Structure formats: structure tokens, C-alpha cells
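Below is how a single chain appears once it has passed through the pipeline. First comes the sequence as given, then the structure the pipeline wrote out for it. We keep one example in the README because the format questions we get most often are answered faster by looking than by reading.
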Amino acid sequence: MSPTREGDSAPAPGSRRDAILTAAARYFAAEGYHSAGMRGIADSVGIKGASLYNHFGSKEEILYAIALKMTRDPVEEHLVVLDEPGSPAERLTRLIGVHLRHLAVHRVEHLVSLRELAALTPEHRDHVVDYRKYYQRRVRDVVAAGVRTGEFHVADPLRASVASLDLMNGVSWWLRDDHNVDALVDTYVDYIVGGILRHDAGAPPPHDGPATEG
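Resulting structure:
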């Protein structure tokens, strides 16, 4: 069960709230969270300070919303591929694809949520970490399933899962808009499935797409 809590409902896509979070993340990335002020955030969005306070009561609430979006959305939207038909290697390959493509679109928000996590209140930080741990556990379970079927050859599925996720999340630090994301996905499938997880070449090869039965 994912760590959803009361009041966690996501805003509608394309809402003013989303626009504020996108602009605020860019502002935090450029100015640094601790140097940022609500007035500067409002200016970056192109609205008046009073309008900003209609949506968020403080810059910490804005940072929390950014971090929550970058942890809750992957839990709700990415993990469904782990429940689809296919071998563990096939399902993890699909997860690598959706995970990296999401980071490519939301690189700045993800980078800010990683870099400024310590600025959150303890309650907010724990909530974000709960989502991350849940995502990690789901990946671990599929890695463990692959170990049981002989597809993967790792001694510790949890450590292998952490290493795989850390490798993917690290692209936020250097990824640029001109990078070929499809090529990046192929490379990271090789790094993770073929490398970290030591996929058995004798098993059915993973592919980045819906699995077919039969």
C-alpha cells in the first residue's frame, strides 16, 4: 500500500498551482532555497505576492509540494508497470523507461527536491521519504522475484534496488535538454539490468514496451 495521507490529493494537471511549482523550482535552483523569498517566487511566476499566498502559506509549503509531486506521482504513475505481465527483467526495463523520461521532463523539480530535502519540516520530510521508501520496496520485490527465477544474480535485492534507483536519479545533476532520452534509456537498461542485476543472458531478453503473452 502506498503511503498516501489525508490531504494528499494531486492538483489538476495544468493548474495555476502546477505553474507556481514549476516556476518556483526554477527559482530555487537558480537562487538557492534559503536565499529565496516569497516575493521573488511570485515575481518568477508573474503574479502578485498576495495571489501567491492564496495557494501557499510559505516557501516551505512550496518546497514540500515540489518534493511531494516528485515522489507521489512516480508511486502513482510509474509503479503500475511493475504489475503488468512479463518477466521481472521486462517489467524493470519498462520502469527504467518511464522513470528516466519523467526525470527528463521534471529534471529541475527533481533536482531541487533532492538538494533541498533537509529544508523541509521533519513531518514533511518524513512523508516524502515514506514515498521514496515505498517505491524502493516495490523495485526490490521485483528484483527479488528475478533472483528467485534465476534471471538476476545479486546477493542483496535491496542494495541492488537502491543502487539502481540512485544511478537513475543521478541523471538530474547533469541531464540537458539536448540529450537523447531514448538513447539514455537504452544505456541505463544495459547498466542496470545487464550490469547491476547481472541479468542471465539465457533468459528472455528485456524489451522497452508492453510484454506479450504466449
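Confidence is low (pLDDT under 50) at residues 9-14, 208-214.

See the next section for the split statistics.
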